[in-house]
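I'll show a typical protein example:
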Amino acid sequence: MTRPGIIEIRPLRPEDWGPARRIYEEGIATGDATFETEVPGWESWDASHLDTCRFVAEREGRVVGWAALAPVSGRCVYGGVAEVSVYVGADARGGGIGLRLLAALVESSERAGLWTLQAGIFPENVASVRIHERAGFRRVGRRERLGRLRGEWRDVLLLERRSLRVGSETD
């Protein structure tokens, strides 16, 4: 159920972790958002995500969604590649917040010099697949039986967005 109100997209701050954590827990509870079964603590989450390219969606002073980028590898050749996470609270889904958060990630990734964003999404999470495609991501494959969640093998769709501005120059 979506609620009315103006949505502000702004950088995620450490004090936002409490509400962002609750939204992450809601995503985990669906069984269709992530292979994670527990939300990490702030220090662990903070260390595993880029310092830039992290946002919250706020409505009437309340965090209703968050998005962030994590590096895919520590190897320097992958320095321009990041993995996308977008989560919207259960009471705010269906109102375009996920797409707005994803658009903020795309724009900030361009400024940060990233050339590829990737997302691994369960095929059952149709809404997430749709917003990624609307944001310029394309399906590049399906990883079958990639992992087990709650005793069930799960496939993962791999989507990516290549920058048209960063990394397109030839040597």
In short: The beta strands are 7-11, 54-59, 62-71, 81-88, 116-121, 138-149, 152-162. The CA atoms of residues 45 and 144 lie 27 Å apart.
